[in-house]
Amino acid sequence: MVGSPALLLIWARIKLDRDGPVIYAGRRAGLGGREFSMYKFRTLVPNADRVGGPNTPDDDPRLTKTGRFLRRYKLDELPQLFNVLKGDMSFVGPRPQVLGEVAGYTPEEREILSVRPGITDWSSLKFSNEGEILAGHADPDRAYAELIRPEKMRLGLEYARRGKFRDDIDILVKTVLLPFRK
Predict the structure, then answer these.
(1) Structural domain of residue 44, as residue ranges?
(2) pLDDT tens, 29-42?
(3) What's the pTM value of the predicted model, to 2 decimals?
(4) CA angle 126-25-72, nearest 5°?
(5) How many structural domains is the chain composed of?
């Protein structure tokens, strides 16, 4: 996996794009609310978290040229396979959230933390165009809270309460096919 030509090409392209690390390690809440580092290929300019919020619309000036491409095809998520190997994540499960978001969870929403977070889930499929939805909004974080978060939480809770292996297979197949629909 480490020597994969695709991963090496992405690595080299990010290095050519701008100064800064190739891998971004964001702090996220996992199973039981345990904090862990979630790995992604860096798609934003270095220190982007100091310039803007956690939500990134497609028109965000912090996005690098390579980052736009990687996000469009979800290739920035490939390093999360290491999170799966480490046991921090699974292939399928509610997407792990930033710590500030989890701190504001209601007691009901905390049920999402009863399952291991995943690389993909129903909300990843439903909101695969999240950046497009947030584009053009003066406050992308507020737009996320109003336009995406309620349904994302509903889907996450539904998975935590009733997710089955059959759902995991369905989600994985639809995730693999998603880039071919774009």
Answers:
(1) 5-181
(2) 999 999 999 999 99
(3) 0.91
(4) 35
(5) 1
